[in-house]
Amino acid sequence: MSGSTVTADSGPDLSSIHDYSIWSYCYARGRIPTDMMGGCPICSNQGMTDIPMLYTLLASAPAAAEPRIMLVDCGFRSGDSMTGSRFQNIEMPEAVLAKTGFRPEQVDTLILTHLHFDHAGNFAAFPNARLIVQRREYERWLEVIASVPDLSLGKQHWALSSMDVEVIGLFQQAVKDGRVTLLDGDAEVAPGVFCRLAADTHTFGSQWVEVSTPQGPYVIAGDCVYWYANIERMWPPGYIQGNPWNLMAAYERLKAVVGPQQLERIVPGHDMQVFTRHRNWLSGLNPVAEVHLAEGEPSRFQS
């Protein structure tokens, strides 16, 4: 198996002076059963809910000694859903990143919280980015795909319901080409940016990203948290491919990082409230949230 490896590292004290601006983008919208996101049975029989598909950009402060432009997740190449309907308002990375003045080729690091199609499917759009994923996530999905006798079922097979199998093949090639860093647990992947393994939660090797700022840490949760409601009422969603008890433990860990009274410092994977709890504006088909600005970074807010 090719690909470089980074071993577990608890990382330094997050009170360091590292600082990053954080923008979260909606790149498409879906309509999903409410209990899939909010949990069963507490959200059962409540119909359908509109959700955003998200990824998040981190840009080091303008005065940083080592300028970095990093992306957490990258969206999909196709808009096909497990529900049989297509996602709406789909925008590709070139249009999405331009809303805050960036281009896909500027991204030097692409952190994938997990390998579901809506988070990892469009990695090829970022030609100069180093790819980072947990080894457990990558290797276990290879095992699953190898075990499915009829891959043509695609998203109609539960095991593949959130996968684009052909993208995993492309990712295998990226591993062979040495473009991928496979993590074995927690690791600092850039100054003040930490990947935190949440094994067997949403997926086999899901991870969330902890970002240092002088005001305290922020968390890009991926699908370790779908909605703020999951962590606020400690109720896991109705669709996961891991263990809900492990997910509950991850919620506790996340609350300890940002503080139980500052959960807005968490960016969930699919919550429209990202665009009400933070400064936001509509650009093109979808909104942008300005989650945090590093010192010296001008706002992109458009009233």
Description:
The chain is of the alpha/beta class and 303 residues long. It has a single domain (4-292), classed as Metallo-beta-lactamase, Chain A (4-Layer Sandwich). The chain is 21% helix and 28% strand. It has helices at 34-38, 93-98, 117-120, 135-147, 165-176, 228-232, 244-258, 274-277, and strands at 4-7, 20-33, 48-60, 69-72, 109-111, 130-134, 180-184, 187-190, 193-199, 205-211, 218-222, 266-268, 279-283, 286-292.
**pLDDT average, as an integer?**
94
Query: Which stretches are poorly predicted, pLDDT < 50 over at least 5 residues?
Result: 10-16
Q: How much of the residues is beta strand, in percent?
A: 25-35%
Main beta-sheet annotation? 9 strands, mixed
| Helical content class | 10-25%
CATH class (first level) name? Alpha Beta
Number of strands: 14
- Per CATH, the architecture is 4-Layer Sandwich
CATH third-tier fold name: Metallo-beta-lactamase, Chain A
Helical/strand content category: alpha/beta
CATH homology-level superfamily: Ribonuclease Z/Hydroxyacylglutathione hydrolase-like
Keywords:
globular; nine-stranded mixed sheet; five-stranded mixed sheet; 14 strands; alpha/beta; 303 residues; Metallo-beta-lactamase, Chain A
